[in-house]
Write a structure and sequence with these properties.
There is one protein chain. By secondary structure, the protein is α+β, with helices and mostly antiparallel strands. It contains one helix and five strands, in the order E-E-E-E-H-E. It has one domain. 19% of the residues lie in helices and 24% in strands. The strands form two sheets. It has a three-stranded antiparallel sheet, covered by helices on one side.
Length: 113
């Protein structure tokens, strides 16, 4: 008998199965630490999921509000753009306040693996 990947995950004990789709690596200007973003697709339905290796935590700078869901079709590109934009907008907000970028701005996500 031939089994599909999806059928392997249909047991009621399995919750929220995701499939790895892609990985992207980059650095922010003036911060040499590599950031990794991994994208996952739910096996059965739903939005793509982005998991990021680091978060930005800059004293005196609030992270911009998350963008509202525009109701567009779920896509890998849309999810990646949103994940990168969260980092870049916080980074740019700090730079606009005259703060100098440093590795201390990046906090590893302890749940990223």
């Amino acid at each position: 008998m031939s089994w599909s990947r999806e059928e392997a995950l249909t047991d009621p004990a399995v919750r929220g199965p995701l499939m790895f789709v892609s990985e992207f690596r980059f650095v922010l200007r003036d911060i040499p630490t590599e950031i990794t973003i991994r994208l996952y697709r739910p096996i059965f339905a739903g939005q793509y999921v982005a998991r990021c290796s680091h978060k930005l935590a800059i004293p005196g700078v609030d992270a911009p509000a998350a963008a509202n869901d525009d109701g567009a079709e779920p896509s890998e590109g849309r999810t990646l753009h949103h994940a990168v934009e969260q980092l870049v907008s916080t980074y740019n907000a700090a730079k606009s306040q005259g703060l100098a970028p440093g590795t201390s701005w990046l906090v590893p996500d302890t749940e990223f693996c």
